[in-house]
Amino acid sequence: MKKTKALNYIPGGILNASDYELLAPQFIPPDYFGYISGGSGVDKTLRLNRNAFEEYRIIPRVLCDLDQATTQIELLGQNLEHPLMLSPLAYQTLAHPEGEKATAAAAEATDTLMVASTLSSFSMEEIARRAGARKWFQLYLQPDFKDTLELIRRAKACGYRAIVLTVDAAVQLPSRTAINAGFNMPADLYPANLSRQTNDRASVSNNPSRSIFHAYAQNSINKESLKRVMEATDLPVLVKGVLHAEDAVALKQLGVSGIIVSNHGGRTLDGVPASLSMLTEIRQAVGSHFPLLFDSGIRSGQDAFKAIALGADAVLIGRLQVYALGVAGALGVAHMLKLLRQELELTMSVAGTSSIKDIQAVSLKKG
Known about the structure:
The protein has about 375 residues and is α/β, with parallel strands linked by helices. Helix content is about 40%, strand content about 10%. β5 (about 115), α5 (about 125-130) and β6 (about 135-140) form a beta-alpha-beta unit.
């Protein structure tokens, strides 16, 4: 592993959460940054995710009573101080030696729910000790279902309060950004959660001779495997990686506890729609009371506001957490989350919304 250059203080000049993205290349090795910042293919979907937010305008309201304004929400029986969550991101030691442990400490310090990845650099137990009570575990289905059951059992044992099953990443191809940066996964970097098993998650990028169809068949999730996961635990099971309204309805009918609208940050099939562009259609399909979360492209509190106005109950912050981690470790992630929350509160104030439910009633102007 190469050494990163993270600071132990917040550098000057950071005024917005998105500033961490601008600074990150100065602190994260170029090839690592190429991998972290890239999507797949030529990054069409990566760009669509960001551009989608620019299509919507917030119309300010006046004469609104904000004396009791709050960002608090209730989600799956959990009371949260705000709707900003940390998305599951793998191998965070690429950005900082403390990786997910530092991110977890920042989450705990800022009352933020963290979703820890199966492919974390540190074990779920180590992360759980830092993250506090607000934590969920993201699950990749393993080739041997006994290993999947063991991951679920361990997650429950160390206090994770929901399982987030990712369904859109059976096959991933590298982006030109990562290839051009000369990125190769460090030999000493491995998913700590899988150290007790033989990890045979097929990947076209690390095994070109393997058929794409074979890789997809081995790693994909069907109705039966989803049912097996839900039957294996009494924890809520959410599904992450949904873009089609009919899939959302089918998942709801199968009994999942919630859905995360996501295109994996542009890391799967390049050219699929921006997650934001599919959000309202999916909300209308599943109804107003079904838990629906959003992931892909959030860079500001105003972005979060727009996603909530278009149908999300909460939003997940992806790459921005790793950019902040690379700049200033746990302190950077905590500061980034603080800025995001301030930006959300400012947007709510000017828009005349005193609660997250109020945001969901806002009509955005397109164009």
